[in-house]
Amino acid sequence: MSRTVATAQDTPAPAGATEADGPTPENAAPPPGGAAPRTPRRRSGRAGAWAELLRLPALFTVPGDALAGAAAAGARPGPRTLLAIGSSLCLYEAGMALNDWADRAEDAVERPHRPLPSGRVRPAAALTAACGLTGAGLVLAARAGRPALAVAAPLAATVWAYDLGLKRTPAGPAAMAAARSLDLLLGAAATGGGTRAALPSAALLGSHTLAVTAVSRRETTGGSALAPLAALATTGALTRLVAHRRIRLPAGRRAAAAPGLPGSGPAEGPPRATGALATALGAAYAATAARPYLHATLNPSPVLTQRAVGSGVRATIPLQAALAARSGAAATSLLVAALAPAGRMLTRRAGMRKVSIT
């Protein structure tokens, strides 16, 4: 998606997730009091400029969407799931490149170190990359089947609409939430052939993205305690839902979980074990997001608001993992959870202090 927060990406970026040097769709802002902003370390060379433009570490927040969608559909991840992940990654990066292209005039004034205003990447090249990546994402979705393409097309349209117009309107957070939700549904459609079973998980992930994006809209100016307070309440509600609410497992998992009954899909763990795992991952989600939201509520300064956005983006991964566990897919949830430390490692190696997610 587009730049949403220091999402990974630290994000929120799909949408998918504003991804710049700071944690949100609007990029990080200078600290209050007129102090000079800390310029993030940048890798030298053409490859480093593109890595910064595309915010590569933020990519680790993307595969969990498709994997959680596959789990919600009750299907084991397979080749079509990989195609869905590839499609999501392409559309996500298209949003990153398009976001900087659309913001190039603003960045020239507020963030002149960014790849486009600094001249390290040409605007035409960024726009070409956005178009090419969008096309590649749609092609990969088509390879995964018609149901997947039927979800990827509106997802791509949402990404472009967000970056080119909706980002600065009241509809911006809803558009970002829609992109993340559609990304999860893309995994369900590609793997299971339908999206109906994945709608509850998509709604939960979209609610989280809506809350993070709403906070990010004030990260450069601060001054609003309402958005982080609402995000804190949302985090509490989502934690309770993923950790405690009893759900009806997808048909394949119900059958496989019942002793002596054949099933069309493998259960990755007994209900009690996956329930405990969902609870643990829900707690990890809350631990990642709640405290920074509380700090931003008590003191809505730009710095604390930016930190809250970054933590909200990072919390996307444990939430995705909890959603997979909630659907009975223990192995898938652990795979998603492992993406968090991998993303942090790449962030350090890439020399990017903050990246956004959408």
From TrEMBL:
Gene3D superfamilies: UbiA prenyltransferase. Residues 1-47 are annotated as: Disordered. One of its GO terms (molecular function) is transferase activity. It is a multi-pass membrane protein. InterPro entries: Prenyltransferase_related, UbiA_prenyltransferase, UbiA_sf. Keywords: Membrane, Transferase, Transmembrane, Transmembrane helix. It is found in: Membrane. Its EC number is 2.5.1.-. The keyword Membrane applies. It comes from the Bacteria. It is an enzyme of class 2 (transferase). The keyword Transmembrane helix applies. Transmembrane segments: none annotated. Residues 1-10 have a biased composition (Polar residues). This is SCO3242 family prenyltransferase. It comes from Streptomyces fimbriatus.
